[in-house]
Design goal:
The structure is a single chain. The chain contains five helices and 43 strands. With 594 residues, the chain is mainly β. It has four domains: 221 residues, no CATH class; 115 residues, Immunoglobulin-like (Sandwich), CATH 2.60.40.10; 181 residues, no CATH class; 55 residues, no CATH class. Strand 30 and strand 31 form a beta hairpin. The N terminus is likely disordered.
Length: 594
């Protein structure tokens, strides 16, 4: 590098394009969570980096009211100009640039800047200094370095405590030589349009892009690096309840990494994993701020989960700030959602809770206690003239269930409809209802009814729908069944509310003529006649509410409680069983057979 400064070639190229440029508008749909980035623009040239994707990306909207002469950006289709071998080489050809000039004439339809995007560098020429505020959605964008070349990049600089270039790059061998204590060249744009090499002790600016030389390959992101399981954001969607956030401290000293919810709002549905030696795993609320100490050169994992029962709507959106307190700060969007029915279940009455639990729940009951049917003693009450006992009775019978050596597992299928009524199923088939398409008044085909999953207990309805699982190259339904329960019909309705601390009861009657009645026997004549017995099972479920030890998504995808059953007809005395049950929601479809 022969010179410490270069004049920006665009300054020479602007004169032919003094006429105005009207660009085609390009808007991003409004999204949440939002943050506002503030950039101090100096008079003259500015090299800026947007950390947010604007909600309205049209240049005429974003630059409205600013004393701006022009704005320039690399054309998206040209990726190789993100880096150069020498900032002085002639890569600033106008045909490689998209530009916006706020006038009323269209200078060139081929080189228009139609939209301002997030995580991109822009060159802005200002007539006077001004403050530019851009509202949009942030993202955890990673830097992709081109080896042995200059890269035009921006950095996650903390506006409250910006670091020096040397502090930021000293832990990267591709940018700092620890033997010579020399930093690879970095160029910053001056207001005159010159790219000037900075001293290592120069303070970085938030929202600024620079030409940075990368010697060899590199994946370096800064003294602090954050990795999520869902790319450039923390997205739980409707199904995920846990994510591992890995945080790397690339510096040589201890970092007190601060996690802080800066998205606003009083609701905090976030919890984190913590192990207490005295009580075991816990999921307490994740405080804001939360400090995570990480020793130099190491990393830590923060296991974050979302408790969907803590937010009342169908969506939760916020922005998380993750910083090291020494110049680096990331803004990461976090979002979670839940079904409409489930949204009703948070902090409501038993009736509304049961509606919020709508869907198909599958799990098992573990029978851990059974009473001893032969407990007590036999006594005879009276004899006939021949000395035969008239009545033999058992006294001292204890109905209390006692622990068994090996629990019995009974598969449970429970469906809760949109009205909150729970039903015990013996089988159910999941199928797919195809969407309905129609033409609008202009003849354009559109989807008038969205596709959806359906739950069928009536096998005769299966041909009306499409399968959801591939089986031998064919689509088939997904069948769930239980051999633990059988009864005439397709379901048994529970009485009571499917809600916390509420009891549900249903009666499962196996008629003496029913094929699965245990007294039925193909080869025993006594078991083929009317001398057989009906078997009656009274089944009870009681849901327990969430506790501090409950998993984070308890109440949304997971429910637990106590199981009770009374069986009559198998023995002269009733058989009482007790245990626990666990259910997981596998579908939020609140209707059956349609």
């Amino acid at each position: 590098m022969k010179s410490q400064s270069m004049h920006h070639p665009l300054v020479f190229g602007l004169r032919p394009f003094v006429s105005a440029l009207i660009v085609a508008s390009c808007c991003l749909a409004g999204a949440s969570p939002l943050q506002t980035q503030t950039i101090n623009l100096q008079s003259g040239w500015n090299a800026v980096y947007l950390e947010v994707a604007p909600t309205n990306s049209r240049p005429e909207f974003l630059f409205s009211g600013l004393p701006m002469a022009s704005a320039w950006a690399f054309q998206e289709k040209v990726r190789s100009v993100d880096f150069i071998q020498d900032p002085a080489e002639p890569v600033w050809n106008l045909e490689r640039w998209a530009f916006y000039i706020p006038t009323n004439k269209l200078e060139s339809a081929a080189n228009r800047l139609s939209g301002i995007l997030g995580n991109q560098p822009y060159l802005i020429n200002m007539s006077n200094a001004a403050i530019w505020r851009v509202t949009g959605v942030p993202s955890l964008k990673r830097i992709t370095w081109q080896a042995d070349a200059y890269n035009l990049v921006g950095f996650p600089v903390d506006p409250a405590a910006p670091p020096t270039f040397q502090t930021f790059f000293r832990n990267s061998s591709a940018h700092y030589n620890t033997s010579t204590l020399q930093m690879q060249p970095v160029y910053r744009m001056a207001s005159s349009g010159e790219w000037t090499q900075v001293a290592p002790t120069t303070t970085m600016k938030p929202g600024e892009v620079c030409w940075v030389f990368c010697k060899g390959g590199s994946t370096y992101q800064g003294p602090l690096e954050v990795l999520t399981e869902t790319g450039d954001q923390i997205e739980f969607g409707e199904l995920l309840d846990l994510q591992n956030i890995r945080v790397f401290n690339r510096a040589s000293t201890l970092a007190s990494v601060k996690w802080e919810n800066v998205g606003g709002g009083s609701v905090n549905p976030l919890v984190y994993y913590r192990f207490d030696p005295s009580v075991g795993p816990q999921w307490p609320a994740l405080p804001s701020p939360y400090i995570l100490p990480i020793t130099g050169g190491s990393n830590a994992t923060l296991r974050v989960a979302v408790n969907r029962m803590l937010f009342s709507g169908t969506n939760f959106d916020t922005v998380i700030s993750i910083g090291n307190g020494a110049g680096v700060r990331y803004l990461v969007p976090l979002s979670a959602s839940k079904s409409r029915q489930s949204a009703l279940a948070a902090g409501a009455t038993a009736e509304v809770q049961s509606q919020g639990f709508a869907g198909l729940w599958i799990g098992s009951a573990s029978v851990t206690d059974v009473n001893v049917a032969h407990s007590g003693i036999l006594v005879t009450n009276g004899f006939d003239s021949q000395g035969r006992a008239l009545v033999v009775e058992r006294v001292g019978f204890d109905p209390t269930p006692k622990p068994v050596r090996t629990p019995a597992e009974l598969r449970l299928l429970v469906h809760v409809d949109t009205n909150g009524t729970a039903r015990l199923l013996k089988q159910v088939i999941q199928m797919w209802q195809e969407p309905v398409y129609t033409n609008d008044v202009s003849g354009v085909l559109y989807q008038s009814v969205a596709g959806r999953h359906v739950l069928l207990t009536d096998d005769t309805l299966v041909p009306q729908y499409t399968g959801v699982a591939s089986r031998d190259t064919e689509l088939a339904g997904r069948r769930f069944s239980s051999i633990a329960f059988d009864f005439p019909g397709t379901s048994l309705a529970f009485t009571g509310s499917f809600a916390y601390n509420q009891s549900l009861l249903t009666t499962n009657i196996l008629p003496k003529s029913w094929p699965t009645n245990p007294f039925r026997h193909k080869y025993h004549p006594d078991h083929q006649s009317d001398a057989s017995y009906d078997v009656v099972r009274v089944i009870g479920l009681r849901l327990k509410p969430a506790t501090p030890d409950s998993p984070p998504d308890y109440g949304y995808r997971l429910l637990q409680g106590t199981y009770e059953e009374t069986v009559s007809g198998l023995h002269k005395t009733n058989i009482f069983a007790a245990g626990t049950f666990t259910l997981q929601r596998v579908s939020s479809t609140g209707i059956l057979n349609r």
